[in-house]
Amino acid sequence: MLLYHSLAVGLGLVASGRAIGGASDLTGTWSTKSNKTLTGPGFYDPLNDKLIEPERTGISYSFTADGYFEEAYYRAIANPKNPKCPSAIMQWQHGTWTYNANGSLTLEPIPVDGRQLLSKPCDYDKGIYTRYNQSELFRNYEVVTDAYHNIPRLNLFEFDGTPMQPLYLVRSPPEMLPTTTLNPTNTGTAAAGSKATSKAKAKRGLDYPEVPLNWKAKYEQGMIGGSDMVQRINADRLWWIGLTFTGIGGLLYFGPRRLGLRL
């Protein structure tokens, strides 16, 4: 009887240890290879409600051992019809995460805090700045030591098992903004104004006007001001990204054929 009791206690400790391990090995700030897109105040300024464009595209996640997360995305979107006109999107959100019994991870953001900036400089002269709220489910994850870089690497697998880009440990403890609600909204029952105004606000997500893509230059010239401005995504940088996509596509298409290979 004592043996069975000892085995039960031992198995309980192993299971508990696995759950604790699932929390502790995630702790830190992780980023894709560029190491230029990172969570924290360098990506989002909550005081001025401003997204800050990194030098390079990338993805970053931060996790605390007590169940908080933060994420930062900066992605270029290729334009097959016109490679010289790519788009770009910046997304930021934070909230809580849960390590589930089946080994999956659930991320639940604070709905009012998330921000998104979409830039399509060839189509619009203004960026689209809205709230962003997207729960996430990762089927599983693993933390390993990368054989090439010899640093911890986080492999996340999406809900359907598709692997994401590898993330590498950049900082531990993590670099994050405060984990509490940063942009609380008024949830009172006061009149919201006309129906047209309410619909417009719901569509935009934020009560701010659209932000000119060249706001920074105008701001420096003293033409505009205030704290509602969000940094634009650099259109020149997007052009170079588009040119890079074109070059890579041409290399992949013509290179093998020049060598007599068939794809």
TrEMBL record:
Name of the protein in question: Protein ROT1
Matches recorded under InterPro entries: Rot1
Entry's localization field: Endoplasmic reticulum membrane
UniProt keyword annotations, A-Z: Endoplasmic reticulum, Membrane, Signal, Transmembrane, Transmembrane helix
Membrane topology category: Single-pass type I membrane protein
GO BP term (any one): 'de novo' protein folding
Bilayer-crossing regions: 238-255
Keyword GTP-binding among UniProt keywords: no
Cited function: Required for normal levels of the cell wall 1,6-beta-glucan. Involved in a protein folding machinery chaperoning proteins acting in various physiological processes including cell wall synthesis and lysis of autophagic bodies.
KW GTP-binding (keyword) present: no
GO cellular component: endoplasmic reticulum membrane
Source organism of this protein record: Pseudocercospora eumusae
Superkingdom of the organism of origin: Eukaryota
Lineage: Eukaryota, Fungi, Dikarya, Ascomycota, Pezizomycotina
GO molecular function, one term: unfolded protein binding
UniProt similarity note: Belongs to the ROT1 family.
Signal peptide: 1-19
Main localization of the protein described in the UniProt heading: endoplasmic reticulum
Pfam family, one: Rot1
